[in-house]
Amino acid sequence: MRLGLRIIVLIKQVPDIEKVRFDVETGRIDRSSAPAETNPFDLHALEAGLQIKEKLGGSVTVISMSPRQAESSLKDALARGADRAILLTDTRLAGADTIATAKALAAAIRKLGEFDLILCGEKTVDGDTGQVGPEVAELLGIPHAAYVCEIREITHEWIKVVSDMGDKYLYELKLPALLTVTRELNSPRLPTLKDLLRAKRSQVEVWTADDLSEYVPLDQLGFQGSKTRVVKVVIPSTEHRRGIMLRGDEAVEKIGMIILSEVLGK
């Protein structure tokens, strides 16, 4: 009898969205303009995987498709309790839209072999599409639930979850399955200094596009395989509160006109 669940968590390293700049000409994020961090939603997915491992046993593998500097996020995941970390990095994977990203991740999962549960954050703060997780599930032909805010019960055969779609719905999915989770699901743990030092010595496996070629045509990956193109980026101006200064009789007249226009407008 097999013991434990084989859990895969998909994570992404993103720029600090409050500080990042956008390249208006190319329609891309200038990732070098801000410090990088693990996508906050993905930390909740990782925590869910770790809690399930603690309950039922098994292993947690984290996968990220990112530039080489994303090793720091993968090592952070190892420090938090993940067992294995894989980085997909290659210039041929760069410029991918959601479907090309999903194809690369699905190929990596097929290369890993058998699995029971895939966990993702509901979205990334830099893209905000919420598409990659469900696309991976569709490519793998497995059931999935989005916006999962509660895991009610899990066994080696099925999982019962609550999905928050404005209204809340209870789903039971047969494993293997994929979930995208919300921040309401849990509170991610913090690694100890001992865990950080251990993870610093750990190895992150690096896979290139060639490692995925058995499972997906290379012309379907990266910018070449992307179905969408950013035509134009517009950064909206920030509106601030405006004030006017009124004095004497002018103030009374102006305020009266403002009140009158509000009343008539209603």
Shape: globular
- The secondary structure category is alpha/beta
* Strand segment tally: 13
Order of helices and strands: EEEEEHEHEHEHEEEEHEHH
Strand content: 25-35%
What would CATH call the homologous superfamily? HUPs
CATH architecture: 3-Layer(aba) Sandwich
Question: Biggest sheet, strands in spatial order?
Answer: 11-10-9-12-8-1-6-7-13
Low-confidence stretches: none
* Largest beta-sheet characterization: 9 strands, mixed
| Beginning-to-end CA distance, first to last residue | 71 Å
Q: Please state the CA-atom Rg, rounded to the nearest Å.
A: 23 Å
Helix count, DSSP H or I runs of 4 or more residues: 7
**Number of separate structural domains:** 1
CATH class: Alpha Beta
CATH topology category name: Rossmann fold
Please give the share of residues in helix. 25-40%
Overall mean pLDDT stands at 89
Provide a descriptive summary of the structure in words.
This protein has 266 residues and is α/β, with parallel strands linked by helices. The protein has a single domain (5-220), classed as 3-Layer(aba) Sandwich (Rossmann fold). The protein is built from seven helices and 13 strands. The chain has helices spanning 40-56, 71-80, 98-112, 132-140, 193-201, 209-212, 248-265, and strands at residues 5-10, 13-15, 21-23, 28-30, 36-38, 58-65, 84-88, 117-121, 144-154, 158-165, 167-174, 177-181, 205-207. Strands 11-10-9-12-8-1-6-7-13 form a nine-stranded mixed sheet, with helices on both faces. Strands 2-5 form a two-stranded antiparallel sheet. It has a two-stranded antiparallel ribbon with strand order 3-4. Helix 2 (71-80) crosses helix 5 (193-201) and helix 3 (98-112) crosses helix 4. It is globular, with a radius of gyration of 23 Å. The termini are far apart. 35% of the residues are buried. The mean pLDDT is 89.
